[in-house]
Amino acid sequence: MSLTTTDSTLSAAASSKRAAGSGRTATPLEVAPAAHSGVATFAHLIPKLEEYLTPSELKKVKEAYRFADEMHLGQMRKSGEPYISHPLAVADILAQWHMDPQALTAALLHDVTEDTAVTKTEISRNFGGPVAELVDGVSKLDKIEFETQEKAQ
Fold first, then answer.
1. 4: nearest Cα among 32, 42, 40
2. What is the pLDDT of residue 54?
3. For the chain: N or C, fewer Cβ within 10 A?
4. Distance CA 30, CA 103 (A)
5. Catalytic residues
6. How far is Cα 134 from Cα 78, in angstroms, rounded to an integer?
7. What are phi and psi of 76, to 5 degrees?
């Protein structure tokens, strides 16, 4: 299964934004912020995933990306980058390690329960219990308090 750049760069909701002042629908390249050209995209991730995932596994990861992208639509990081840039970067690292589809899906979704109204139950219903448990576990990691900075590392 081959995904197109248009299909995989942004969710349908994101791609419906209007091109500045033209009154026409923007292409994914027009929607992506030019100032942050180093931001990872799902299109960048696809070739890495196609090296080792089956088409059905790739489809599930793509669904997680679309869901996360839609949930974070309009959210920006303090750096000005789209909020989805961090989950994409995490998924990119995991893809380099050839992690399984559940880990990749959790990487893409790990900020969704913290920064949107999406619940663990919804993640479980849409992506399965193991993914929901991974997302929940990652979300709890930042809540651990360490006695010393040395232990934190």
1. 42
2. 98
3. C
4. 30
5. 114-115
6. 26
7. -125, 150
Distance between CA atoms of residues 148 and 142, nearest Å: 15
> What are the tokens at 91?
């998924």
CB burial class (10 A; 0-12, 13-18, 19+) of residue 110?
buried
How far apart (Å, rounded) are the C-alpha atoms in residues 88 and 94? Answer: 10
Tokens 């090296």 -> residue: 51
Longest CA–CA separation in the chain, Å: 56
Alpha-carbon distance of 69 to 88, in angstroms, equals 10
Nearest to 111 by CA among 150, 64, 57, 148: 64
- What one-letter code names the amino acid at 107? A
Tens-digit pLDDT profile for the chain (153 aa)?
333 333 333 333 333 332 333 333 333 333 333 334 455 799 999 999 999 999 999 999 999 999 999 999 999 999 999 999 999 999 999 999 999 999 999 999 999 998 899 999 999 999 999 999 999 998 777 667 665 555 555
Nearest-angstrom CA–CA distance, 53 and 108: 16
pTM: 0.70
Give alpha helix (H) positions in 85-128: 85-96, 101-109, 112-115, 120-127
